[in-house]
């Protein structure tokens, strides 16, 4: 049960506390934010509704803690991260339970997310020691007209306070993918979790607390976006924002100051299927890519662009697999679980109804109960339908039949998104040429899009994001280059 045993101190009555200055605290607002269980549609948890004044205090302590943390040896920072990773894995059960209840993540996927997060933290500690343990040494006589009288030493130094804002769908994994690089690089960290996912984040932060990080170095602020959202992202104390989510990221980028931004936003990941593709492989990947975690993934397959000549066969194969997907509550480890909120379910339904009105072929009947939407494949989708362009973030997948590869590439590139995409063909030359032509951050060949492994570069272009993630890239992004130039006396001066 959440709130018992080692996690007892993070909860007061039925409200979870927030974390600041190494302690679990109640907000002076006296108010709480309710977290609705997507399956029962009833209040499951409550978290503190923090105030702007509390944000100011957190920023102050974060700044002070960062100063001494930056002087802490790398190996010591890594040691604490390894410790946190072990504690995180040890307490995977209560964190997974929160994920099941807050975001309706199937039970086995919830456990996997926590374990993967522990692995990410450990790898990050190792990688950080390697990357940050190196600098460069430049000599001046390599540039025209210069003598060897200057030596330049460069190193990577921390940015300061990093604000991390993860999304509901992977609240733990996408929080640690920001926290671990920030900490190993010598930054302090302020975490603003999503409302749905906040309790899993608070449990995760407690694991870092138990590992013994210095007070004030890590904070976790919960509350209403309307109250503290803009206040946090525009706060003068913030030196870097790492955000994963949707449209909000575009708004943040317009309001944030002159600081590094790392953003991974939405996607409309296209799957291009050529005539020579292994259709069984394609069907399996469409099911995995389109429907795992009910399609609530930025790297989910969001549109299938299939050559007309193989379209009938492929649609039949996918249909028979969709029929085998189990639908129901996350506790029962069903394949398709309720989507995160009623507004999300309503949005998905709007896209489905628009497609129906415009004549898409429904491969299954549309069925919804509360937030639970049955998996749906829409065939003969045309570019005038909203589902061809908008991101449903649900278990609904459009199939667009194409007459040529160029048509598929054109559809992919006409989107304002450019996160990932995939190509299925047995011809590696074609695959490479198509990959080059697709305007997306990552193209997978003969597999569904995916963010991991977590040390691979991960980035979007256009409205899908700014900067690049993946452990190594995140560490580099959360540091800046510092140069120290040593000036030697000129040769004539020394020889004279």
Automatic annotation (TrEMBL):
Transmembrane segments: none annotated. It is found in: Cytoplasm. It catalyses: D-glyceraldehyde 3-phosphate + NADP(+) + H2O = (2R)-3-phosphoglycerate + NADPH + 2 H(+). Pfam families: Aldedh (PF00171). One of its GO terms (molecular function) is glyceraldehyde-3-phosphate dehydrogenase (NADP+) (non-phosphorylating) activity. Keywords: Cytoplasm, NADP, Oxidoreductase. The active site is at 264. Belongs to the aldehyde dehydrogenase family. InterPro entries: Ald_DH/histidinol_DH, Ald_DH_C, Ald_DH_CS_CYS, Ald_DH_CS_GLU, Ald_DH_N, Aldehyde_DH_dom, ALDH-related_metabolic_enz. GO terms for cellular component: cytoplasm. Residues 24-483 form the Aldehyde dehydrogenase domain. Its EC number is 1.2.1.9. This is NADP-dependent glyceraldehyde-3-phosphate dehydrogenase.
